[in-house]
Amino acid sequence: MALIRFVAMPTEQARAYQRGAPDAYGNPPERRVSDGSGIPCRHCLRHVAAGEGYLTFAYRPFPTLQPYAETGPVFLHAAECERAPEGDVLSPMFRATPDYILRGYSADDRIVYGTGGVVATHKICGRAHEIFERVEVAYVHMRSARNNCYQLRIERA
Fold this sequence. Notes:
Elements: E1 4-7, H1 11-18, E2 30-33, E3 39-40, E4 47-48, E5 53-59, E6 72-77, E7 99-105, E8 117-120, H2 124-132, E9 139-144, E10 150-156
Antiparallel strand pairs: 1-10, 2-5, 3-4, 5-6, 7-8, 7-9, 9-10
């Protein structure tokens, strides 16, 4: 039985951006064409292939503005793509990067202090389990350890 699940950007959000909805700052997504260098789509959790279009936009994965609602740039296929299935196995897309930031949040979307840190990629599942041992943690964000960009959400299964 899985104890955690990795959760990609919700499809309704991805479709809105793909159709030109404004980002967290009120700007339209920027459109570019991938050179194949590893542009990570936050919806299908696969890289955008060379020659495919992609979007860059400011993403705030929180329901409301508040002091802990981090906003940052993310990438998304410009064309509709299938959402990555939720499961307890980290997408292969993330395995080429040595580490990520994991950070726990409470049900009211505030950082739970003491949960954040840079974690080696091969230790992400174990560290997520440890973070969820704290009852006040409702979910965990996985972010880039280099640029702090949002990658995905981790939830209890």
